[in-house]
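<context>
A single protein, sequence plus fold
<sample>
Here is the protein in question:
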Amino acid sequence: MRADDSTAGAGRAGVRMIARILIVSGVLLLALGLVLGYAPWLLAWFGKLPGDIRIERENGVFFFPFTSMLIVSIVLSLVLSLFFRR
């Protein structure tokens, strides 16, 4: 057994993790693209929830979708925890 063999296993695990992340990211982007292309009404709620901040003035608009992004974060955390369980 060479000294390089012990680190090769760790390197392969890292490459597998990156591959897994890329696959999951690709699937999520594909799903988002399909929803935006064929069913945009499914995302009509985004930015219109209570807690989303929108300030309109004559010189511009400030928009901060706080509640919407909180929901997106929770859903993504749940989905990713399902994919990356050990």
About this structure: Residues 3-38 form the longest helix (36 residues). Residues 19 and 25 are 10 Å apart (CA to CA). The chain has a mean pLDDT of 85.
